[in-house]
């Protein structure tokens, strides 16, 4: 990745996107506010893996396999069992489609916001606060 591309990707990710959610053993997927905290080295390892043809091929095969409901149930069962051995309670949340909002950034870059729903999650709330740091 060129330096300018890396800079663009980094600034876009930091400026416009919150970090992805982190698994919380007490409240897996239950609307927690914690975030995935990976090191630069871990990010680079993922990035390097995705550059390899063989890894991408295996990853896409896996994605196709889990599209089959029976395979998906088996994988979820195995993951739950593995994580339970480590003391982590795992819940899988399968959201139902809602709708899509199409917008743009500065009238130039298209942005699609997918809205989904699940009875497993708490309802969103809107709370007014004068100081976002303290509430």
Describe this entry's structure for a reader:
It is a single chain. This protein has 135 residues and is α+β, with helices and mostly antiparallel strands. The protein has one domain (3-117). Helix content is 41%, strand content 14%. The protein has 4 helices and 2 strands. A two-stranded antiparallel ribbon has the order 1-2. The longest helix is centred in the middle third of the chain and has 17 residues, at 69-85. The protein is extended, with a radius of gyration of 19 Å. It starts with a helix and ends in an 18-residue tail after the last strand. The relative contact order is 0.10. Mean pLDDT is 77; it is low at 1-33.
SSE arrangement:
Layout (H helix, E strand, L loop, with lengths): L2 H14 L23 H12 L1 H13 L3 H17 L10 E10 L3 E9 L18
Antiparallel strand pairs: 1-2
Order of helices and strands: HHHHEE
> Main sheet: which strands, in order across?
1-2
Strand content: 5-15%
Shape: extended
- In total, how many domains does the architecture comprise? 1
Low-confidence stretches: 1-33
* Tally of strands: 2
How is the biggest beta sheet arranged? 2 strands, antiparallel
Rg calc: 19 Å
Number of helices: 4
Q: Provide mean pLDDT, rounded.
A: 77
Strand-pairing-aware structural class: alpha+beta
Helix content: 40-55%
| Gap from first CA to last CA | 40 Å
Biased composition (Polar residues): 1-12
Domain PIH1 N-terminal: 66-128
Protein name: Protein kintoun
InterPro entries: PIH1/Kintoun_subfamily, PIH1_N
